[in-house]
Amino acid sequence: MSGPARPVRVALDLSATRLGRAGVARTALALADALDAHPDVDLVRIGLGPAPAPGGVSRRTLALRQDLAWHPRGARREAKARGADVLHEPLPRGPLAAGAPPVVVTVHDLAVVRHPETLSRWNRAYTRRTLRRIVAAATAIVAVSEDTAADLAAFAPEASARVRVIPNGVDSFWSADDPQPAPVDGPYVLAVGTPEPRKNLGRLAEAMRRRRTAGAAERLVLVGADGWGADGLPADDWIVRLGHVDDRALRALYRGAACVAVPSLHEGSGLPVLEAFAAGAPVVCARTGALPETAGDAAVLVEPLDPRSIAAGIDEAVARAHALVPLGRARAAEATWERAAALYAELYRSLV
Fold this sequence. Notes:
Layout: E1 8-13, H1 23-36, E2 41-46, H2 57-81, E3 86-89, E4 103-107, H3 111-114, H4 121-137, E5 140-143, H5 146-155, E6 163-165, E7 188-192, H6 201-213, E8 219-223, E9 239-243, H7 247-256, E10 259-262, H8 271-279, E11 283-286, H9 291-295, E12 300-302, H10 307-319, H11 321-334, H12 337-350
Parallel strand pairs: 1-2, 1-3, 3-4, 4-5, 5-6, 7-8, 7-10, 8-9, 10-11, 11-12
Helix pairs in contact: 1-12, 6-10, 8-11
């Protein structure tokens, strides 16, 4: 009689954390912690290393080296050397051909396909040359929402049988008590994310200008670094750009916000929505992409191309905070990384 199966040894590629700690990097680190605690997974973290200074030549060189060498070949070579049963790439980068060990690729969104004009030239060019090959080579593909799964089905119908939906979680950190005050005084509306065109910050700023002209007191506070989509915003004193802040400061900012605005043109999930829910902030978000799927009935939905709709949505979210906050907290409580880790563990086991 055989004993219990050994844990699946999984090499999780964390190379994205060397280029920033937002978006994919944040979710990868949270998943790593949850997988570490799962009894059926023996986690090996690969791709780690020093983080170069943002904006410099060394950072651009590292990004190129990762895209041209590490993701296509190096990560699988390292996973094999570490005795991994499965290589997990937590973003749509990876080997360009099938091989061993099997590869799981997580796709957070297909904005680079649906809205290519909102991403960098390199991202567009690299994806155009590699994404179909990466999807074809992957043993399994994880979509973080039904919306992203539908985008994948349209982009690569032949891969649909290999797609599984596993939603992202939100760490309990965001709901924990902490007396730290926010680094800015209220009242303010908060927007969180790497500043890039699809975050729609220009229309958000226009919506805030309309509100202030009508007598609203809130300033607009922007959190996020290493992007390229905020340069065209006005230099008004009611727009506060904080850049990168640590997680305790961000949690305090969520809690102190009159509301959190996520008017993105497209998101495959919407991590700031879940973080804001967990921290107890009312949320207004776009009715596009996966944001309605993530928010459910706990946020005010708006048309992202219409600053008047965004302004009205912010007004509604501020006025209905007492009703929206408990709905958001309940929504966040259901979206745990432990649940995501269990679903990933089941997927890994099916591949070995």
